[in-house]
Design a protein that fits this description.
Helices cover 83% and strands 0% of the residues. The chain has helices at 2-17, 21-33, 35-38, 44-60, 65-91, 106-115, 117-137, 139-167, 171-204.
Protein backbone atom coordinates (compact mmCIF):
# COMPACT_ATOMS: atom_id res chain seq x y z
CA UNK A 1 0.00 0.00 0.00
CA UNK A 2 2.79 2.45 0.95
CA UNK A 3 4.45 1.95 -2.43
CA UNK A 4 1.30 3.00 -4.31
CA UNK A 5 0.72 6.00 -2.05
CA UNK A 6 4.30 7.20 -2.61
CA UNK A 7 4.12 6.73 -6.39
CA UNK A 8 0.78 8.53 -6.71
CA UNK A 9 1.81 11.49 -4.57
CA UNK A 10 5.28 11.76 -6.16
CA UNK A 11 3.87 11.88 -9.68
CA UNK A 12 1.32 14.51 -8.59
CA UNK A 13 4.06 16.66 -7.05
CA UNK A 14 6.14 16.54 -10.23
CA UNK A 15 3.09 17.37 -12.38
CA UNK A 16 1.92 20.22 -10.17
CA UNK A 17 5.22 22.14 -10.04
CA UNK A 18 5.95 21.97 -13.77
CA UNK A 19 4.97 25.13 -15.72
CA UNK A 20 1.95 24.46 -17.93
CA UNK A 21 -1.46 25.78 -19.05
CA UNK A 22 -3.15 25.24 -15.68
CA UNK A 23 -0.32 26.92 -13.77
CA UNK A 24 -0.47 29.83 -16.21
CA UNK A 25 -4.21 30.13 -15.56
CA UNK A 26 -3.63 30.22 -11.81
CA UNK A 27 -0.99 32.96 -12.08
CA UNK A 28 -3.25 35.07 -14.29
CA UNK A 29 -6.27 34.55 -12.04
CA UNK A 30 -4.34 35.45 -8.88
CA UNK A 31 -3.05 38.60 -10.55
CA UNK A 32 -6.57 39.71 -11.45
CA UNK A 33 -8.69 38.64 -8.45
CA UNK A 34 -6.33 37.56 -5.65
CA UNK A 35 -5.36 34.16 -4.25
CA UNK A 36 -8.44 33.63 -2.08
CA UNK A 37 -10.87 33.80 -5.01
CA UNK A 38 -8.53 31.67 -7.11
CA UNK A 39 -8.22 28.90 -4.52
CA UNK A 40 -11.25 26.87 -5.79
CA UNK A 41 -9.45 26.48 -9.13
CA UNK A 42 -7.11 24.00 -7.42
CA UNK A 43 -10.00 21.53 -7.69
CA UNK A 44 -10.07 21.75 -11.51
CA UNK A 45 -8.16 18.45 -12.08
CA UNK A 46 -10.76 16.57 -10.03
CA UNK A 47 -13.43 17.66 -12.51
CA UNK A 48 -11.55 17.61 -15.80
CA UNK A 49 -9.75 14.30 -15.27
CA UNK A 50 -12.88 12.20 -14.66
CA UNK A 51 -13.84 11.76 -18.35
CA UNK A 52 -10.16 11.44 -19.32
CA UNK A 53 -9.54 8.70 -16.75
CA UNK A 54 -12.71 6.77 -17.64
CA UNK A 55 -11.95 6.91 -21.36
CA UNK A 56 -8.33 5.81 -20.93
CA UNK A 57 -9.17 3.02 -18.47
CA UNK A 58 -11.90 1.64 -20.76
CA UNK A 59 -9.42 1.48 -23.62
CA UNK A 60 -6.56 0.08 -21.55
CA UNK A 61 -8.79 -2.60 -20.05
CA UNK A 62 -9.19 -4.13 -23.52
CA UNK A 63 -5.44 -4.44 -24.06
CA UNK A 64 -3.29 -7.50 -23.40
CA UNK A 65 -1.01 -7.75 -20.37
CA UNK A 66 2.03 -7.49 -22.63
CA UNK A 67 0.74 -4.26 -24.14
CA UNK A 68 0.18 -2.79 -20.69
CA UNK A 69 3.77 -3.63 -19.75
CA UNK A 70 4.97 -1.93 -22.94
CA UNK A 71 2.88 1.14 -22.09
CA UNK A 72 4.27 1.14 -18.57
CA UNK A 73 7.86 1.02 -19.85
CA UNK A 74 6.98 3.75 -22.39
CA UNK A 75 5.62 5.85 -19.55
CA UNK A 76 8.95 5.44 -17.77
CA UNK A 77 10.80 6.67 -20.86
CA UNK A 78 8.40 9.61 -21.14
CA UNK A 79 9.00 10.61 -17.52
CA UNK A 80 12.76 10.47 -18.11
CA UNK A 81 12.27 12.75 -21.13
CA UNK A 82 10.26 15.15 -18.95
CA UNK A 83 13.10 15.09 -16.41
CA UNK A 84 15.60 16.04 -19.12
CA UNK A 85 13.33 18.85 -20.36
CA UNK A 86 12.97 20.19 -16.81
CA UNK A 87 16.74 19.95 -16.32
CA UNK A 88 17.31 21.99 -19.48
CA UNK A 89 14.83 24.56 -18.20
CA UNK A 90 16.97 24.89 -15.07
CA UNK A 91 20.01 25.61 -17.23
CA UNK A 92 18.12 28.44 -18.97
CA UNK A 93 16.79 30.75 -16.21
CA UNK A 94 14.89 32.92 -18.72
CA UNK A 95 12.70 29.93 -19.69
CA UNK A 96 11.14 29.74 -16.22
CA UNK A 97 8.21 32.06 -16.79
CA UNK A 98 4.61 31.42 -15.85
CA UNK A 99 3.23 34.88 -16.61
CA UNK A 100 0.94 33.89 -19.45
CA UNK A 101 -2.57 35.04 -20.30
CA UNK A 102 -5.29 32.60 -19.31
CA UNK A 103 -9.08 32.22 -18.82
CA UNK A 104 -10.67 33.61 -15.68
CA UNK A 105 -13.24 31.16 -14.32
CA UNK A 106 -13.18 27.72 -12.74
CA UNK A 107 -15.17 26.36 -15.69
CA UNK A 108 -12.59 27.77 -18.09
CA UNK A 109 -9.82 26.27 -15.94
CA UNK A 110 -11.49 22.86 -16.33
CA UNK A 111 -11.73 23.40 -20.09
CA UNK A 112 -8.06 24.38 -20.20
CA UNK A 113 -7.14 21.12 -18.50
CA UNK A 114 -9.42 19.12 -20.82
CA UNK A 115 -7.59 20.59 -23.81
CA UNK A 116 -4.20 20.16 -22.15
CA UNK A 117 -2.42 17.03 -23.52
CA UNK A 118 -0.64 16.34 -20.21
CA UNK A 119 -3.58 14.59 -18.42
CA UNK A 120 -4.14 12.34 -21.46
CA UNK A 121 -0.46 11.43 -21.65
CA UNK A 122 -0.24 10.93 -17.89
CA UNK A 123 -3.28 8.65 -17.74
CA UNK A 124 -2.39 6.71 -20.90
CA UNK A 125 1.25 6.00 -20.12
CA UNK A 126 1.65 6.35 -16.34
CA UNK A 127 -1.46 6.39 -14.16
CA UNK A 128 -3.69 4.17 -16.32
CA UNK A 129 -1.38 1.12 -16.53
CA UNK A 130 -0.43 1.55 -12.87
CA UNK A 131 -4.06 1.74 -11.70
CA UNK A 132 -5.03 -1.37 -13.70
CA UNK A 133 -2.02 -3.31 -12.41
CA UNK A 134 -2.79 -2.23 -8.83
CA UNK A 135 -6.48 -3.16 -9.22
CA UNK A 136 -5.58 -6.69 -10.28
CA UNK A 137 -3.47 -7.13 -7.17
CA UNK A 138 -5.88 -5.46 -4.75
CA UNK A 139 -8.59 -2.86 -5.58
CA UNK A 140 -7.61 -0.79 -2.56
CA UNK A 141 -4.15 -0.32 -4.08
CA UNK A 142 -5.72 1.30 -7.15
CA UNK A 143 -7.77 3.55 -4.87
CA UNK A 144 -4.55 4.45 -3.03
CA UNK A 145 -2.84 5.49 -6.28
CA UNK A 146 -5.72 7.68 -7.48
CA UNK A 147 -6.45 9.11 -4.03
CA UNK A 148 -2.85 10.01 -3.24
CA UNK A 149 -2.36 11.50 -6.71
CA UNK A 150 -5.35 13.85 -6.58
CA UNK A 151 -4.97 14.74 -2.89
CA UNK A 152 -1.37 15.77 -3.52
CA UNK A 153 -2.28 17.54 -6.77
CA UNK A 154 -5.01 19.64 -5.12
CA UNK A 155 -2.81 20.48 -2.11
CA UNK A 156 0.16 21.43 -4.31
CA UNK A 157 -1.99 23.61 -6.58
CA UNK A 158 -3.57 25.30 -3.54
CA UNK A 159 -0.09 25.94 -2.12
CA UNK A 160 1.03 27.26 -5.50
CA UNK A 161 -1.92 29.70 -5.57
CA UNK A 162 -1.11 30.89 -2.05
CA UNK A 163 2.57 31.40 -2.83
CA UNK A 164 1.82 33.27 -6.05
CA UNK A 165 -0.59 35.55 -4.20
CA UNK A 166 1.46 36.22 -1.08
CA UNK A 167 5.15 35.98 -1.94
CA UNK A 168 5.11 36.25 -5.73
CA UNK A 169 6.02 32.59 -6.21
CA UNK A 170 9.22 32.79 -4.12
CA UNK A 171 11.17 34.54 -6.87
CA UNK A 172 13.34 32.79 -9.44
CA UNK A 173 15.28 30.84 -6.78
CA UNK A 174 12.09 29.30 -5.41
CA UNK A 175 10.97 28.30 -8.89
CA UNK A 176 14.35 26.74 -9.63
CA UNK A 177 14.26 24.78 -6.35
CA UNK A 178 10.82 23.32 -7.13
CA UNK A 179 11.80 22.42 -10.68
CA UNK A 180 15.04 20.83 -9.44
CA UNK A 181 13.00 18.72 -7.02
CA UNK A 182 10.67 17.71 -9.85
CA UNK A 183 13.67 16.64 -11.97
CA UNK A 184 14.72 14.20 -9.25
CA UNK A 185 11.16 12.89 -8.79
CA UNK A 186 10.55 12.49 -12.53
CA UNK A 187 13.85 10.68 -13.02
CA UNK A 188 13.17 8.33 -10.11
CA UNK A 189 9.64 7.55 -11.27
CA UNK A 190 10.82 7.15 -14.87
CA UNK A 191 13.39 4.54 -13.89
CA UNK A 192 10.83 2.76 -11.69
CA UNK A 193 8.22 2.48 -14.46
CA UNK A 194 10.78 1.58 -17.10
CA UNK A 195 12.23 -1.29 -15.07
CA UNK A 196 8.77 -2.40 -13.90
CA UNK A 197 7.56 -2.59 -17.50
CA UNK A 198 10.66 -4.46 -18.71
CA UNK A 199 10.49 -6.86 -15.76
CA UNK A 200 6.80 -7.52 -16.49
CA UNK A 201 7.58 -8.32 -20.11
CA UNK A 202 10.38 -10.71 -19.10
CA UNK A 203 8.10 -12.43 -16.57
CA UNK A 204 5.33 -12.96 -19.13
CA UNK A 205 7.82 -14.19 -21.72
Amino acid sequence: MIEYLVIGSSFAFAAAVQPGPLQAFLVSRVASTGWRRTLPASLAPLISDVPIALLVLLVLDQLSVNTLHVLRASGGVLLLVFAVVALRRLQRPDSIDLRLSAPRTLLDAVLVNLLNPNPYIGWSLVLGPLVLAAWRVQPMYAVAVVGSFYCTMVVMLALFIYLVGTVRFLGSNGQRTLIAASVAVLAGLGLYFLFAGVRGLMTVA
